[in-house]
Amino acid sequence: MTIFLADNQDITRAGIQFLAEKTIHGFEFVRTEDKTELVEQLKLQPEAVVVLDYTMFDMNDVEELQIFYDRFPKVQWILFSVDLSLDFVRRVVAMGGRISILLKESSAHEVRECIQYASNGRRYICQRMTEIMLAPQETSVEDDVKLTPTETEILKDIAMGMTTREIAEKRFSSFHTVNTHRKNIFRKLGVNNVHEATKYALRAGLIDSAEYYI
Questions:
Q1: What is the mean pLDDT of the chain?
Q2: What percent of the chain is predicted at pLDDT more than 70?
Q3: Fewer CB in 10 Å around end: N or C, the chain?
Q4: Is residue 30 classed exposed, middle or buried when 0-12, 13-18 and 19+ CB atoms within 10 A define those classes?
Q5: pLDDT beyond 90 at 205
Q6: Alpha helix segments (H runs only) across the chain
Q7: Mean pLDDT over residues 160-175, rounded?
Q8: Are 156 and 205 contacting, i.e. CB atoms less than 8 angstroms apart?
């Protein structure tokens, strides 16, 4: 079986590969840089395990993930990200039993266990995400989202296609500061990636649709 590492962070891919090699043997590890490459690789290896960083990889939204899930019915998916919204996790879990959930705060034991489960065709959800899913949830509506003025400006820049580094240079701030704002924005909006944040900015009228090119 092949494990595809669909994660744009070298350190994360190296860590996953190291832990997996300590857990199971005889697997081939293949790094994929984007969706196009992932599709071509899955055509050749339709029964693979895909370790996907949904928030960093160029996957636009849950609907696109659903297309991948349906197109490759024998693939086991491990979503491995820093943070995933509860609504998103519930939607992907409802797709079927071939999607596992790991947060990057998960222990090495959980990572190894998840890979073992996926390689055996079983779903795995890390302890932290299980606790989040089982905890009582307060109701909220989109109008209740409260971004600070700084967060609003950064969201506009994100929606206009600027990278975290470009925003930091524009604002004369550190990369870490802007990245923290970005995480807070995504958490408040309940989104997981730039595409979803941009759709919110368009709906909220923060940017003019005439200025935005898909």
A1: 85
A2: 92
A3: C
A4: middle
A5: no
A6: 10-23, 35-44, 62-71, 86-93, 108-119, 127-134, 149-159, 164-171, 175-189, 194-203
A7: 90
A8: no
pLDDT at 102 over 60: yes
For residue 125, give the DSSP letter.
B
Rama region for 133: left / alpha / beta (φ>0; ψ in -120 to 50; rest)? alpha
DSSP character at residue 145: -
* CA–CA gap between residue 76 and residue 49 (Å, rounded): 5
Q: Which tokens sit at 96?
A: 């079927």
Maximum CA extent, the chain: 52
44-73 average pLDDT score: 89
Instruction: Please state the rounded mean pLDDT for residues 147-169.
Output: 90
CB within 8 Å of 190: residues ≥ 6 apart: 85, 86, 87, 88
